[in-house]
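To whoever picks this up:

The parser on our side crashed when reading a file containing two proteins. I've narrowed it down to the boundary between the first structure block and the second sequence. Both blocks are reproduced below exactly, byte for byte. First block:
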Amino acid sequence: MYKSIVLIVAFFIFPASHMGSITQAQEASNYSSYPQIADAVKQAEEFTDSVFSARKLPGISVAVTLGKEIIWQKAIGMADLENNIPASVNTIYRIQSITKIFTATRLMQLRDEGILHLDDPVIKYLPYMQLQGNKNVSFKQILSHVAGLPNEAPKSNHWSTYKFPDYDEYKQKLMALEAVQPPFVDYKYSNLGFNIIGMAVAAAGNNPYENQIDKYILKPLGMKRSGFSVSPEFAADLAVGYELSDEKLKQVKIYSDMGAVNPSGGLYSTVIDMAHFLMFQFSEKNDVLSVTSRREMRTPHFVYQGWWGGTGLSWHLEKLDGFTVFTHGGGAPGYVAQISGIDELKLGLVLCINSITNQHDISKELLAIFVSPVKELSDELEAESYPLLGPEAVIYEGVYYMGETPILRVWFEDKRLWAIQEGAPEGNEFLFVPGEKEHHFKMQGGPLDGEKGIFLLDSSGRVISLEVGSYKLTPEK
């Protein structure tokens, strides 16, 4: 009996999960009309204007999503200074390393189709590849940046010459590789790794990598202004890249097709197209990529020393105001971009700038402006979505025991039924959400989140037990 008591105490004392979720109000529309969001938008406008001026940037485009809705979009400055073309939310930017998320997404699609496995050695699909130090490097190691691969392939000078290798040239580079550290020793970012994945995707999918990204991701998500080249139809919308030199903005050398480097950083896109990609991350539909696989990509597969963040499958993970942010940046001469999201709030942000600057910090500060207001709104909408209980719910109140040990305190307040483990600190409360049957509830929050809570009554209407999850508790006599 003693072991059973310890087990259930351990279960209940586990910190409660975040109660609020925008999921409960997905049918709502026009979130931007709520005062919390309107105030956040005003702050974000002011912050973006100040960053634009202080950093002497040519142009900024940004969009924030909540659930299925873009709640804020803004563009400021110029996409092309020489031709006096202003930036807009449909301006096309290079998103560089954010391309890795698309490469990983296509790999996950192939995994879900049973064509490959994440633990497969890459040489199964690229038999000519020779890697000293990690001969059987797997897709999963590369996706989470723990394969120990160098950042670039040997003798790669494409960022000096702007002459990018084609796939045949890159294949030659893969025949003599050397890991720079053993796998799983530490995080080691690698463009090379994702170019390898892109070539494996082409082999496994029996179709050029770029065609697969377009057919299976961009087109289904309606990302019409995104791709590995800019069509003549949208050429006038391409942002020109600049660098700040001697207090003046100087146009960088124009470069286009990135060849075999495409899988690690070749995509062009807009903040509106990327907003669609963010909203897809939060969608509960199993199209393009299953909900489970998307969550798997955003789950930690490697944790940094100190536990301040980690990596998923291509996504980087970090903390912000108590929430976990999944994010990825991109940068190259003339361009930076950042995409970020918070699953619990279904809140996302994408930022594009046509000059080199610290876009990660700008993005993080902008996202932080929306976190508290969205959480507040989320809690309100969630509370409104649950049916209220009448005064008869007081019959459930009381302290519930396992044997002689008090485990749970239940009380009725604000027309809702709440519970907390006896002795747990404030903030660990969870909710009984009414079910379809009388006296049947669903637990909301805490370690038993999603499980049933069923009160059993005797013929006189007095509660005689509470079945919560797999545990049976009895009320104080």
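<<boundary where parser fails>>
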Amino acid sequence: MKGGEFLDTNIHIYSIDTASLPKKKVAIQLVDRIFCEQTGTISIQVFCEFFWVTTRKIKNPLSSDKANSIIKNLSTWNVHLPNYENIENAIKLVSKYKLSFWDAMILESAIAMNCHTLWSEDLHNGAVYDGVHIRNPFNPIH
């Protein structure tokens, strides 16, 4: 059985962003549950995107030190360090599923880390890509 849950960058950003309080609440609950259950998986790409967006792009940007502190806490999760083979696999996913390269890299990290779920609002909610179930926490499947 597959293990682990991968959270796309947007979920982590919503967990600290004050611009969308309903999404923030849902994101915090999800991140907290995954911390407690120790099922979290993340990639270097997510760390980089999180730092860039939270220190420059959100309404109330974090300081570099605060963003780094959050990343340090998240580094206790299973961390995927992509290599060239992962890039090749992501390129194949781009063609296979008509994804952007960056979404394909996130999906490839989830696949490589044997995750059963990828939480994201960027991919098709309810889809299954190479055995990884896509779930949007802000638009649950009923």
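After patching the parser it read the second block fine. The chain is about 50% helix and 15% strand. The helical segments are 9-14, 21-37, 44-56, 64-74, 84-97, 101-112.
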